[in-house]
Automatic annotation (TrEMBL):
Coiled-coil portions: none
Family of the protein in this entry: Belongs to the binding-protein-dependent transport system permease family. HisMQ subfamily.
Domain ABC transmembrane type-1: 87-380
Superkingdom of the source species: Bacteria
Transmembrane residue ranges: 21-39, 91-113, 133-152, 172-196, 216-235, 255-276, 334-352, 364-383
Cross-referenced InterPro entries: AA_ABC_transptr_permease_3TM, ArtM/GltK/GlnP/TcyL/YhdX-like, MetI-like, MetI-like_sf
Protein name: Amino acid ABC transporter permease
Gene3D superfamilies cross-referenced by the UniProt entry: MetI-like (1.10.3720.10)
Amino acid sequence: MQNQIGARKGLSLSDPRVRAWLFQILTVVAVIALGWYLIHNTQTNMQHRGITSGFDFLERSAGFGIAQHLIDYTEADSYARVLLVGLLNTLLASVIGIVIATLLGFVVGVARLSSNWVISKLATIYVETFRNIPPLLQILFWYFAVFTALPGPRGSINIEDLFFISSRGVNMPGASMAAGFWPFIVALVLAVLAIVLMVRRANKRFDETGQPFHKFWAGLALLLVIPTCSVLLFGNPLQWEVPQLKGFNFVGGWVLIPEFMALTLALSIYTAAFIAEIVRSGIKSVSHGQTEAARSLGLREGPTLRKVIIPQALRVIIPPLTSQYLNLTKNSSLAAVIGYPELVSLFAGTVLNQTGQSVEVMGITMAVYLTISISISLLMNWYNKRIALIER
């Protein structure tokens, strides 16, 4: 009898656990019903308008050229190839922008805390200026007021007959694989592994004996000696081609198109202003007693900042820094206004106009950006856990 009463009482709505499970089940059912309604409504509207659905269009020939492609591409390639080209162009601009913005943001953030009045005020002016101008306007400024205003190829700025800066972009020597390329890559990997093992051994030795080891110089030597031996044994890993002016444009080598440079610089400078404030707040969050303790041990200001303050400040810096990396990656879609061939411009723009597969194209585009953003978040969260304080 008591067990039956207990069972009936366990299924009562007065039990918080029962209510929690009930609300969760109702929420899942509501989400599934809403998703089914949206899918059904979309399919019905597409059928009424005679719009076919499916992803077969990805296998059709694109029929248009792309100004910048990191992999081989011709007009006869498929729309799936266009998707890959746009994705790689987006990742290229995002990765380079993240690196530049991080380095510049850290420098400006530390400069804002400088005891030098001029340096501190210049850093403040930088932050307050660039973070308050919309990124789209900055992209347009760099593109129209700077890069497209440069002289044409015939009047380009010549740097040692190797680099040519014009309104068509920056032409530079281009590299291609030679006979010693793969041996050089293997030697480079071996050098990195040797450096990792050396660092671990040096840290273990320091913990056991307290004797320091010049890890930087030893690592630099390994990084130079091992790949150099590969070059001496197997030959140069790369062969270089210098751009030549033929007719009205340059032929050969590599070229950084104006759209790419305008996008990368604008997003880097814009995001660096926010990163600078994140770095400044992170450094300020570290107790001043840490600085006093470092000085009492005889550490100078530079080593104190590098070895004591910034490692502790990173625990505060990393979470908001992740948001800035995500913002920079998503803001790369603004490049569509200047014609940079990134994911939105190529796939959600040109491919959508040619095929009319709006649902599929937009679904793929959103899924790709979602995947990139989640990947960045997972990587930064993993690093944040690595540097987190572990309570004893």
